[in-house]
Design a protein that fits this description.
By secondary structure, the chain is α/β, with parallel strands linked by helices. It folds into two domains: 197 residues, DNAb Helicase, Chain A, CATH 1.10.860; 293 residues, P-loop containing nucleotide triphosphate hydrolases (Rossmann fold). It contains 21 helices and nine strands. The protein has a nine-stranded mixed β-sheet with strand order 3-2-4-5-1-6-7-8-9, sandwiched between helices. The longest helix has 30 residues. It starts with 5 loop residues before the first helix and ends in a 25-residue tail after the last helix.
């Protein structure tokens, strides 16, 4: 076969479909034996274009319209409705849906907007029977013939999923063909084309759960099973290694988005790397994927080595270590090289590319992925350069939450806060949720928001060049969807990039709890209502 014949043969291949399955679904609906059947089907098949054959689309459109008007769905009702609808109007409605599908808008439309695409209106009335949609599909006999075909009701759920699956396959093929056509003509780079293709495929992949309706009995059963598993295996979630933080967050939950925010220079990256170290040294399996958009991989590893060896970063960088310190650095490097940790340092990456990297990583590592870290959120690029800052951050935060849920892992995203926290009466105040930089959607999408705050207390050491010099820090859990808001006292040792939790007895002896920052919260947050502590 000549190479130039292959594209033509591919174009002539019929798109995936199964007319027998489509007729089986319509046979059950038109028989009208069970009023709940239409609800089962439309819970999976959201619109008529999921059917391949034009006449099947018209019949299903009539079923949807009848159901929306609270009328019984059966052969007589469908035939009567189609006998009153002009065929030309029905075709225009289908073409409108096809255009929306081509623009990637159809599958995400609400039920109300979809209804407007097939609802029968008085002006749609056919002037004579020959102009009706019923006549165009073969008349009343065609409707009765389909209704009389044998189709067991037990097959309805499975067949509905199969029809939707065939529809997604057609969308997939058409999207890739469109991308291939664009590759022939565009001046865009290969990397941009791959990013666009990845975004298209990922958007399609989310449609396999379109309109998923779950019966409450099944949800309760699944929930009780989950509770039982947690009872038998209480150590669920990914532990940060900081006990008090894990206690408040109940560890990093699979599917959760956790935002770690602070002003520049406070220690966000160091704190995140400490969490990475604690997780990487746990006994259980699972990798960590760290996206660094600001610091290159070499400098990140230097921070890890300095922290683990407890050797001053400056001495390591300047080459002024003694032999004992050099050996500690070497041993730390050997330890770190055994961690299941992968670093991606890239300054210009879109959130869609990040999502693609994370999905591919999980597949390549046999689903062994425990945590994704992004340093930091505001440096990610949006899908369109024309977006405002608010739109960009909103898109990024939503996509990061989707990544967490899609992969079933926690995502830790570092974030900047604005300067308002530094303007309170000339001194720094604890940051609050409204200080998150870029968009309120970060607060909305995150399962927990954690702030780092430098106390500037008398407990701070003055000699910042000393490896043991410390800062008094507050790790403030300002939002916690599944638990209380509170703060944790810690020390930060900037010289060796390390956070350490303060022993409780030290806190009671040296820390004035009356000056402890109050954790601010919004009245409309989805939080547990825990009573305030009485000091």
């Amino acid at each position: 076969m000549a190479d130039d014949q292959a594209p033509m043969q591919a174009a002539e291949r019929l798109l995936p479909h199964n007319l027998d399955i489509e007729r089986g679904i319509l046979a059950i609906l038109l028989a009208g034996s069970n009023a709940i059947d239409i609800h089962k089907v439309r819970g999976v098949i959201g619109h008529p274009l999921a059917f391949f054959k034009r006449d099947h689309r018209i019949l299903y459109m009539a079923c949807l319209d009848l159901d929306d008007e609270n009328h019984r769905v059966d052969a007589s009702a469908v035939a009567e409705l189609l006998s009153r609808m002009r065929f030309r109007v029905v075709l225009d409605r289908l073409r409108q849906q096809q255009q929306l599908m081509a623009d990637d808008q159809l599958d995400g439309m609400s039920k109300e907007r979809l209804r407007a695409l097939y609802r029968f209106r008085p002006e749609d009335e056919a002037s004579n029977p020959e102009d009706s949609a019923l006549a165009a599909i073969g008349g009343y006999a065609t409707v009765v013939q389909i209704a009389n075909e044998f189709a067991p009701s037990s097959s309805l759920d499975r067949n509905a999923k199969l029809v939707w699956d065939y529809y997604l396959k057609r969308r997939y093929i058409q999207s890739l063909q469109s991308l291939a056509d664009e590759a022939y003509m565009t001046t865009e780079s290969f990397v941009d084309l791959v990013a666009k293709g990845s975004q298209t495929v990922l958007e399609l992949s989310s449609q396999d759960k379109q309109g998923s309706v779950k019966n409450i009995i099944q949800v309760v059963d699944d929930t009780l099973i989950s509770i039982g598993e947690a009872f038998n295996n209480p150590n669920t979630g990914v532990k940060t290694g900081f006990h008090d933080i894990d206690d408040k967050l109940m560890s990093l939950r699979p599917g959760g988005l956790y935002v770690l925010a602070a002003r520049p220079g406070i220690g966000k990256t160091s704190f995140a790397l400490n969490v990475v170290e604690n997780i990487a040294t746990q006994d259980d399996e699972g990798g960590i994927l760290f996206f660094s958009l600001e610091v290159d991989a070499t400098d990140l590893v230097k921070k890890l080595i300095s922290s683990r060896a407890k050797v001053e970063f400056k001495k390591m960088e300047m080459g002024t270590c003694n032999e004992e310190e050099f050996q500690a650095l070497s041993d730390a490097g050997t330890d770190i090289s055994q961690w299941n940790l992968d670093l991606l340092d890239i300054a210009d990456i879109t959130v869609a590319q990040l999502r693609s990297h994370a999905r591919r990583y999980k597949i390549e590592h046999q689903n062994q992925l425990k945590l994704v870290v992004i340093d930091y959120l505001q440096l990610l690029q949006s899908s369109r350069p024309s977006m405002t800052e608010y739109e960009k951050v909103s898109e990024i935060s939503r996509t990061l939450k989707v990544i967490a849920k899609e992969l079933g892992i926690p995502v830790l995203a570092l974030s900047q806060v604005n300067r308002d926290s530094e303007k309170a009466a000339g001194k720094s105040r604890p940051p609050r949720l409204s200080d998150l930089r870029g968009s309120g959607s970060i607060e909305q999408d995150a399962d927990a928001v954690i702030f780092l705050h430098h106390n500037m207390s008398e407990d701070d050491d003055g000699d910042k060049s000393d490896v043991n010099a410390k800062r008094s820090m507050q790790v403030i859990v300002a939002k916690n969807r599944f638990g209380p808001t509170d703060s944790v006292d810690m020390y930060f040792f900037p010289a060796r990039q390390r956070f350490e939790q303060i022993a409780q007895e030290i806190i009671e002896d040296t820390y004035d709890v009356a000056k402890r920052p109050v954790v601010p919260r919004s009245d409309d947050e989805d939080l547990f209502d825990f009573p305030a502590k009485q000091e």
